From TrEMBL:
Cross-referenced InterPro entries: DUF475 (IPR007427)
Pfam families, alphabetized: DUF475
Ranges annotated as spanning the membrane: 6-35, 64-90, 118-136, 157-174, 194-215, 245-264, 270-293, 314-332, 338-356
Listed name of the protein: DUF475 domain-containing protein
Keywords: Membrane, Transmembrane, Transmembrane helix
Species name: Streptomyces koelreuteriae
Superkingdom of origin: Bacteria
PANTHER family: MEMBRANE BOUND PREDICTED REDOX MODULATOR, SLL1022 PROTEIN
Transmembrane among keywords: yes
Length: 381
């Protein structure tokens, strides 16, 4: 099962590391290996959240996610995206931007650094909305009940998550602008850029997420009809088959997944410049990491891990919230990528351990109940 799921990732790793050696020797090999680990550590929460969405989709769209989706993730976000950012921020043509990335790496890195505030605002707001919508929803299973119960009650207020996100964005842009004025007037325009980019991130979330939810809701009637068919099949001894998203609903859910992956990749792409400014090595390292994230997503779906460890999804969303705030803070201040990755790992690790403890408690309770039942039957006889 592991080889089947991670086979392509292993193959891409081997090819990527060989390509790195041919391109720049053993030094390049080391850089690519470090970038791969960086991407995996920063994106583990991405895999957990993706799995929660992917399990709703049918087999065809899961394959699309693994094939076309990985092309978008590797080549689009890890290779093309940094070049596009430079082309837009420096007002260069695509060819000029590519030439700059290959011939003047220091200047290329500077352009990407200059564009960081708008990137962080867009990605930060998109991820923040995912987190807020999660914690304001009333769920049957709660991880941190003392926190999630009152937040679920607050979530009954319409558009609360949007209001909070806009307030946080406004504070971020005003704080950035105030600090920028202290260092000169040229950064004042970037405060407006942060505000605009953040609003664009919010709009993107609402459009893509809204369309996904709309078409998912349209399938509810069909699911109800098929539910009767499933019950009939169960009575006849035939296996049940859960209704999976297909058609327009699956397409917009796929689109939502790609935008989500793009938002998660922002910190990885920006963080990669702390290690190298060579776009080729960056694409190789982050591309290998992206493959493992994709494979891990599919593994979680096929193994039913999210159903077995029910708090994992909670931990991943708390990690998303932390990452969103980190991105917004990095508009003005630099934060080490190790800290960002460590926060996600700690939160997901804690949610996993809580899930294990919950499963043990349930098993112990069931075992005790079964033992008591046997004792009663024995005494009755």
């Amino acid at each position: 099962m592991v080889l089947k799921t991670f086979g392509w990732s292993f193959a891409v790793t081997a090819l990527g590391l060989v390509a790195a050696i041919l391109y720049g020797g053993w030094t390049a090999f080391g850089v690519v290996a470090i970038l791969s680990v960086l991407e995996i550590s920063l994106s583990f929460d991405n895999a957990v959240v993706n799995a929660g969405i992917l399990k709703k989709m049918n087999a065809f769209w899961q394959k699309i996610f693994l094939t076309i989706g990985i092309l978008i993730a590797v080549f689009g976000m890890r290779l093309v995206f940094p070049v596009v950012i430079v082309a837009i921020s420096a007002q260069l043509g695509p060819i000029e931007a590519v030439d700059l990335a290959l011939t003047d790496k220091d200047q290329y890195q500077q352009y990407v650094t200059d564009a960081h505030p708008s990137i962080a605002a867009f990605g930060g707001m998109f991820l923040l909305m995912i987190f807020l919508d999660f914690i304001f929803e009333d769920r049957d299973i709660k991880w941190l009940g003392w926190l999630e119960r009152p937040l679920a009650k607050l979530g009954k207020v319409d558009m609360l998550s949007v209001c909070i996100a806009l307030i946080i964005l406004l504070i971020s842009s005003m704080t950035f602008g105030a600090n920028a004025h202290q260092h000169g007037g040229t950064h004042a325009d970037k405060a407006e850029t942060v505000l605009l980019s953040g609003v664009m991130g919010l709009i993107t979330y609402m459009i893509v997420g809204g369309l996904s939810g709309y078409f998912e809701d349209k399938l509810e009637e069909e699911e109800e009809r098929e539910h009767e068919a499933e019950e009939k099949a169960a009575r006849e001894g035939k296996p049940k088959s859960a209704v999976k998203l297909a058609g327009k609903a699956a397409f917009f859910m796929f689109l939502y997944l790609e935008v989500l992956d793009a938002s998660f990749s922002f910190d990885g792409v920006i963080g990669a410049f702390a290690i190298t400014n060579d776009i080729v090595l960056m694409a190789l390292g982050l591309g290998i990491g992206a493959m493992y994230v994709r494979s891990l997503t599919v593994y979680l779906v096929r193994e039913g891990t999210l159903d077995d460890y029910v708090y994992l999804e909670h931990g991943a969303h708390y990690a998303i919230g932390a990452l969103a705030l980190v991105l917004l803070v990095t508009i003005q201040y630099e934060i080490n990528e190790f800290i960002t990755g460590l926060i996600g790992v700690v939160l997901i690790g804690a949610s996993f351990w809580s899930s294990v403890r919950r499963n043990r408690a349930i098993a112990a309770a069931e075992g005790k109940a079964g033992s008591d039942e046997k004792t009663e039957v024995s005494s009755g006889v």
